[in-house]
Design goal:
Elements (H helix, E strand, L loop, with lengths): L27 H14 L7 E7 L5 E7 L2 E3 L2 E7 L3 H8 L2 E8 L4 E11 L2 H10 L2 H9 L9 H14 L11 E15 L7 E8 L2 E7 L2
Antiparallel strand pairs: 1-2, 1-5, 3-4, 4-7, 5-6, 6-7, 7-8, 8-9
Helix pairs in contact: 4-5
Length: 215
């Protein structure tokens, strides 16, 4: 490709809703839970899908989509391989950012904070609830490492399935859960004329400070 591709005409006019700061809760977890329930009720595809951004110790960033599997006041939980690129980066630099985008609701939520590994017991409990085929995939996949091809990947899967036939699949020690402990939330609602509503919550010791941001 040797020419610039113009995308100026790809534009959407937002009109779904607003954020009323007069009734907005002081607790960002309350806002997030409400918005997540609305996204699920709207039957959005993968409403719990989120972009996870990590960085090396030197600050070189990378981002990928993962699934939010649970949340409470302790933080936001996701799973993956400890030896994957995200796992290696989190080991070296345990801070990250999350982004959830709900297109039909014209909303996004950004969350930033520190990341810690779940306990082995917590990871074991979640792994045991996964579908068996997903368990075998986690056991057989060399996540984020080069493979010879699709055929080689399927051969690894088949070999693991044969080896584990008739037995429970143990959680690989190289796979488990993470929890992001948030220090900052931003709630974004699309508005007409690009005058979007943006509210940020920043942790101040035991409380949260809320501010409106310019769009």
């Amino acid at each position: 490709m040797n020419r610039e591709v113009q995308l100026h005409g790809v534009r959407r006019h937002y009109s779904f809703g607003t954020i009323d700061e007069r009734t907005m809760p002081d607790d960002p977890f309350v806002v997030f839970e409400h918005w997540m329930h609305e996204a699920i009720a709207a039957d959005l595809y993968e409403a719990n899908a989120m972009a996870l951004a990590t960085a090396t110790r030197a600050g070189a960033p990378s981002v990928r989509m993962v699934l939010l599997k649970s949340f409470d006041r302790r933080g936001f939980v996701f799973y993956g391989g400890y030896g994957s690129r995200k796992g290696r980066e989190l080991a070296a630099n345990p801070r990250a950012a999350l982004l959830l985008w709900w297109d039909r609701l014209e909303r996004q939520v950004r969350i930033e904070g520190s990341v810690e590994r779940l306990s082995a017991a917590e990871s074991d409990a979640y792994f045991a609830r996964r579908p068996r085929r997903s368990q075998i995939a986690a056991t057989s996949s060399p996540q984020s490492r080069a493979v010879a091809g699709r055929k080689a990947l399927l051969a690894r899967y088949a070999a693991a399935a044969r080896r584990l036939e008739g037995r429970a699949v143990p959680r690989p020690k190289s796979w488990g859960g993470y929890r992001m402990v948030p220090a900052r939330f931003e709630f974004w609602q699309g508005r007409a004329d690009r005058l979007h509503d943006r509210f940020v919550y920043e942790r101040r010791r035991a409380d949260w400070k809320r501010s409106r941001l310019g769009p």
